[in-house]
From TrEMBL:
This is PilZ domain-containing protein. Pfam families: PilZ. Residues 5-83 form the PilZ domain. GO terms for molecular function: cyclic-di-GMP binding. It comes from Agrobacterium albertimagni AOL15.
Amino acid sequence: MEQPDRRRQPRLRALKAGRAILPGGHSTFDCMIRNLSPLGAKVSFESTADIPPQFRLRLEDGTTHDCAVKWRSPREIGVEFLDALAS
C-alpha cells in the first residue's frame, strides 16, 4: 500500500549536483538532489551513515539551505529546509 504524501508542497523531480557541508564546515560530502521543493528535498549519497541530523546543503547553482533530516535510508535522506520555515 502506498504511503500518503504528507508534504506541504509538491516536490519536482530533479537531478542536480550538490554538496552537504557538515557543521563547522570542515567536512563535505558530494550528493545528488533527486527532487526539490521550496521546503525540502530528497538527496542521495554513497552512504548516509556520516550525515548528521542537521547540515547545510549547497546546490550546483550556489544556493544554500540549512537542512534537518526528516527520514533516512542507507543511500538517501529526505530533508526539510530550515531557512524556508523562518520566512
